[in-house]
Amino acid sequence: MKTKSLRKLNVSIVFLILGGLIVASCGGKSDTASTLPVEEVVETTIPETTTTTIPVIVNPLTGAPAADESILNRPALIVKIDNHPQARPQWGLNQADLVFEENVEQLTRFAAVFHSQGSDPVGPIRSGRVQDINLLGSLNHPLFAWSGGNQQVTSAIRKSWLVDLSHSAANEKGGYRRESSRNAPHNLLAETTKLWSLAPADAKPPAPQFEYRKSDEPVTTASKPAAAVKISMDGVDVMWEWNPDLLTFVRSQDNKPHVDMQDVRINAQNVVVISVVYSKSGSSPVAKSVGSGEVWIYTAGVLVQGTWERPDPEMPFIYKDINGEIIKLTPGRTWIEVIRPKSAVNIAPGEDVTKVKYP
């Protein structure tokens, strides 16, 4: 009996000790526990990463990135440039965004369109023609620098959407002067910087005249390689040749390289050859630039053939390939050759350009 009672007592003591330890460990604070730092768990949210694409601002008349955005709101400035043999070499042709070559009286004349950059001086400057009104009407009331014209032409231009900055209207404020090293009338120069300062307060920038390919966008499949094109203009034989090293087309006139006053070959990334019907006003040819016709577009070393359409002279030409798709140009400067029908011949790679006759 005593042994059993003792065993019961010992078991009870053990349970009491264990119970005390358990209570102490659950409810008490030990010195070791109090020295441990309490780590606070904070719920955080990692913000999503967003990519902001900054749009590239391009020049409306070249499709190339704008080097100076401050000038993008100025109007287009058209300068009528002489192409008489005594007027060569000219100032400013390689600085113009666009150049229209049009037939005049047994010769050609250039309508050089400046916007992304200018030329001080520019010229030699000659007279305008009635055909300039419709041909250049899509440039959103551009400034028009010219030497003047007869009463009929002057009246028509002053009533048109062209802003008259002729020699008589702008004079010294436009930087007009006579170049002593040339003979009149092939020596009239001006300055684009001064001509732009005469723009009306409500003048607006030009609308894009072409669509351009992106850097990774191929030329339309409706194209073929082209080495050159020969064009018979009135009184002038013109040739444009593809230069694969410069990635531009370079120009010749009457079988001689056409260079500017800096002795730089006249060049352009694109050459647009539009076939139009010419009528006459007196002795002056008048290009019919409203309607439709054939177009050859030279870009990136290839020829894209198609059609041009233009129902309204204040709207840009629409150029489509043989599949009916819009023809896109290479960003850069463009020359527009306004030719008579059947006045151009394409020259394929490998052909001897010297043996191909002008049409």
Automatic annotation (TrEMBL):
Q: Where is the DUF3048 domain?
A: 61-199, 234-336
**Pfam families given in the database record:** DUF3048, DUF3048_C
Q: Which SUPFAM superfamilies match?
A: YerB-like
| UniProt cross-references to InterPro entries, sorted A to Z | DUF3048_C, DUF3048_N, YerB-like_sf
- Name-wise, this protein is Unannotated protein
Q: Which organism is it from?
A: freshwater metagenome
